[in-house]
């Protein structure tokens, strides 16, 4: 079955309490996010089979299939396992939080949640997902370039000899690959730095660091576009 793909971030909200869904939905729609709702784990998995999502806000305690089990199923399915998950729960016990990370969640927000904190965490996860996808595209681009050189050496052996190919590959490495690798390293470093700041965005000093990291990431992407 072909999944429905839409433009802009799409978030799946999963909670057995309709009132919670209404509050979350209103908050996220005010930030111009597209949202869908699921009242239980089975319904959430059904949505994930038919539509592409960028983030899942998942209630931990639901009748039937709880949030832990839903997250496990998401992580075991190659077609959806890369979607970031933020758990929502009234629990703040260390064991529950650790179990959430063990089954594959990226973040954890306790109820009743602070609107600013939730929005900051949502934005952080969406930013990380976007940058990671761009890094993957860069890697794919590099792979295609190398494949093209190799195919050329086979298809036109009289024109491109092995030595010529090696020389061109070396030149390519110097002029582009090294630059690409440097930019990829910059982006990877920035992503790791942002991950360390998750949950601390409300601190003014941390927020300043976060904005500086975002600026460096945008500068890195501009470099990529010029290559």
Characterization of this structure:
Helices cover 63% and strands 11% of the residues. β3, α3 (67-76) and β4 form a beta-alpha-beta unit. The chain has 227 residues and is α/β, with parallel strands linked by helices. The protein is built from seven helices and five strands, in the order βαβαβαβαβααα.
What is the structure about, briefly put?
The chain is of the alpha/beta class and 227 residues long.
Summary keywords:
single chain; 227 residues; alpha/beta; 5-stranded parallel β-sheet; 7 helices; 5 strands; globular
In terms of DSSP E residues, the strand content is: 5-15%
* Model regions low in confidence, pLDDT < 50 over at least 5 residues: 156-162
Average pLDDT, to the nearest integer? 78
Intertermini distance: 37 Å
If strands are numbered along the chain, what order do they take across the biggest sheet? 2-1-3-4-5
Treating each run of at least 4 consecutive H or I residues as one helix, how many helices? 7
From the alpha-carbon coordinates, what is the Rg to the nearest angstrom? 22 Å
What proportion of the residues is helical, as a percent range? Answer: 55-70%
What is the overall shape?
globular
| Helix and strand pattern | EHEHEHEHEHHH
Strand element count: 5
Q: How would you characterize the largest beta sheet?
A: 5 strands, parallel
Task: Assign the structural class, choosing from mainly alpha, mainly beta, alpha/beta, alpha+beta, or little secondary structure.
Answer: alpha/beta
């Amino acid at each position: 079955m072909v999944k429905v793909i839409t433009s802009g971030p799409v978030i799946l909200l999963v909670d057995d309490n309709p009132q919670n869904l209404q509050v979350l939905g209103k908050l996220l729609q005010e930030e111009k996010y597209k949202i869908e709702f699921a009242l239980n784990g089975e319904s959430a998995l059904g949505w994930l089979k038919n539509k592409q999502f960028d983030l899942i806000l998942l209630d931990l305690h639901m009748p039937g299939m709880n949030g832990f089990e839903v997250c496990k199923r998401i992580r075991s399915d190659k077609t959806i396992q890369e979607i970031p998950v933020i758990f929502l729960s009234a629990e703040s016990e260390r064991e529950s939080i650790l179990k959430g990370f063990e089954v594959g969640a990226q973040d954890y927000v306790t109820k009743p949640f602070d609107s600013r904190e939730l929005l900051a965490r949502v934005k952080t996860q969406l930013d990380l997902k976007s940058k990671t996808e761009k890094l993957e595209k860069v890697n794919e681009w590099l792979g295609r370039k190398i494949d093209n050189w190799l195919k050329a050496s086979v298809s036109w052996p009289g024109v491109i000899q092995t030595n010529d190919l090696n020389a061109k590959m070396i030149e390519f490495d110097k002029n582009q690959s090294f630059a690409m690798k440097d930019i990829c390293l910059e982006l990877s470093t920035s992503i790791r730095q942002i991950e360390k700041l998750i949950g601390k965005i409300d601190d003014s000093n941390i927020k300043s660091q976060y904005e500086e990291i975002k600026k460096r990431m945008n500068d890195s992407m501009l470099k990529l576009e010029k290559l």
